[in-house]
């Protein structure tokens, strides 16, 4: 797990970019934007499948955030804080909800909403976007949630098998 988790994390990091590149016509149209968040999926699954193992998920999340910021976004510092925040919030929620497929779907829904909202707020703060909040909800958040929840449904059990194999 010590080596498998970071390898999977960086694989997901580069798959995010690859999916965005390959399916750019479908994901980035004039009316809507869908953003793949496989890194968040890997981090959320890390918390869900962590059980009694103490993994340094927040540290790896911060490292992935640095790479994500430097490679994909023009704003340094957004994902450095958002990815560890996702790990922290997921751990807090898991204290009260037993981790299973449906609760994981709910947690992932909350985490993607937070990631996208924080990214939107940061983009608005540095004037990278002039999109209104309602336009963001309809044209970005909705399609992004649909894409990522579908990816969660498809990838949850294979990722669980990988985590079980790594243990």
TrEMBL record:
Q: What's a single GO CC term here?
A: plasma membrane
Keywords, sorted A to Z:
Cell membrane, Cell shape, Membrane, Transmembrane, Transmembrane helix
Q: Biological process GO terms, please?
A: regulation of cell shape
This protein's record includes keyword Transmembrane helix = yes
Q: Which InterPro entries match?
A: Cell_shape_determining_MreD
Q: How does it sit in the membrane?
A: Multi-pass membrane protein
Report the transmembrane regions from the record: 30-49, 61-89, 101-123, 135-159
Q: Does the keyword Metal-binding apply?
A: no
Q: Where in the cell is it found?
A: Cell membrane
Q: Which residues form the signal peptide?
A: none
Give the family from UniProt.
Belongs to the MreD family.
Name recorded for this polypeptide: Cell shape-determining protein
Q: Which organism is it from?
A: Levilactobacillus hammesii DSM 16381
